[in-house]
Design goal:
Shape: globular
Strand order of the largest sheet: 1-3-2-4-11-5
Number of domains: 2
CATH class of the largest domain: Alpha Beta
Order of helices and strands: EEHEHHHEEEEHEHEHEEHHEEEHH
Number of strands: 14
CATH architecture of the largest domain: 2-Layer Sandwich
CATH topology of the largest domain: Double Stranded RNA Binding Domain
Distance between the termini: 45 Å
Length: 360
């Protein structure tokens, strides 16, 4: 149990006498991420007490099948959400990219923390240290569990071969280092950095080579939508820039009806009050693709007064402390970019990708 010793006697949101239970997956990375969130909450609310409750999810248990083949939308979240629904935990820490764009009724994302590097990274076999993907011999095998990564990298590096690899970060790195099956594997840079393994990153993939997954690099805190005390507590961790970027990304994914079974990818940038969203869809082999960029202004003042929009969710996110009009603009941006791609034939590309993936 994490005990945040109080420096004063204030009653913090009426929660001071409660033990706040935080749900998480059991993996080492999940625990590191959850510990970091609890540490941030301790700094905000030094009088509160937290208990971490770790559990296994469907995605953790099925390690011999590609994620895209399992057909379950909430591979890494369902068991945690069940515990939240039964009041066994008060909040759950997720990697945002694991959360579907439509949450079960009664739940909301109460906070999205400041994003870590969202890009993908290449980790090379010890024999290939110091190289880049372009420098690897033809037919070198690259491991990735992501259709999105494989589809894009097949376009950028047609001389390489791509093979599925499953397991947590520790398992995948062990498979890379101790066998000769892979010349390199592709992982999220954020996970490697959080694990303290930044020195294993041999190459960061820029958006020209590989756009990232929706929500990649961001941590989300899921809560019961009607638990106002917990919702108010965690909302202090919202990072405004990350929230607006992720609303746009999730709206893009939702309007496309995408998921882990089809290659959908994004990149966002917030600069000078302009939000830029690049989105793309790919065929499984990367030969067919659509990619566009749109932008919108999110320069709206903070609304200080409570109003009728307080309980409004934007693609599952409740962020009362971020201007509602900015959130609306971000969501509209994602939807409009998806509509643009759909008008150019994205639905056909995604349908074919789904059919081929199901048939494999």
């Amino acid at each position: 149990m994490e005990n945040c010793t109080s420096r004063n006697s204030q009653d913090e949101n009426g929660l001071k006498d409660r033990i706040i239970r935080v749900g998480t997956r059991k993996s080492q990375l999940a625990r590191i991420q959850t510990d970091s969130v609890v540490e941030m909450l301790c700094k905000q609310y030094p009088g509160l007490h937290f208990e971490i409750v770790a559990m296994s999810t469907t995605g953790d248990k099925i390690l011999d099948t590609a994620l895209s083949k399992i057909g379950e939308k909430s591979l890494f979240t369902k068991e945690l959400e069940n515990a939240l629904e039964r009041n066994e935990v008060d909040l759950v820490v997720h990697s945002l990219k694991d959360l579907p764009t439509s949450l079960p009724p009664g739940f909301t994302i109460g906070a999205i923390c400041k994003r870590e590097n969202p890009h993908d990274a290449v980790v090379f076999h010890p024999k290939s240290c110091g190289k880049t993907l372009n420098a690897l011999p033809d037919k070198s095998v690259i491991g990735t569990s992501s259709l999105r990564r494989a589809a894009q990298l097949k376009r950028s590096f047609p001389q390489l071969e791509f093979r599925d690899i499953r397991g947590n970060l520790n398992t995948r790195l062990k498979k890379l280092d101790e066998k000769e099956d892979f010349s390199a594997i592709i992982l999220a840079a954020a996970g490697l950095r959080r694990m303290g393994w930044e020195n294993r990153i041999g190459q960061i993939l820029n958006p020209e080579d590989c756009l990232y997954a929706v929500g990649q690099g961001a941590l989300a805190i899921e809560v019961r939508a009607k638990d106002q005390e917990i919702l108010d507590m965690v909302s202090a961790l919202h990072d405004g820039e990350t929230v607006l970027c992720c609303i746009a990304e999730r709206a893009f994914m939702k309007h496309l009806e995408g998921g882990c079974s089809v290659p959908v990818a994004v990149s966002t940038l917030l600069k000078d009050s302009q939000l830029y969203l690049t989105g793309a869809v790919y065929s499984l082999d990367g030969s067919d693709s659509l990619r566009e960029t749109m932008q919108t202004s999110v320069n709206y003042p903070q609304q200080n007064e409570d109003g009728p929009n307080d309980d409004v969710q934007h693609v599952g996110i409740t962020a009362k402390n971020i201007p509602h009009r900015a959130q609306e603009a971000a969501e509209k941006l994602g939807t409009e970019l998806a509509s643009l791609l759909l008008s150019k034939g994205a639905k056909h590309i995604l349908n074919v990708a789904r059919q081929l993936n199901d048939a494999r």
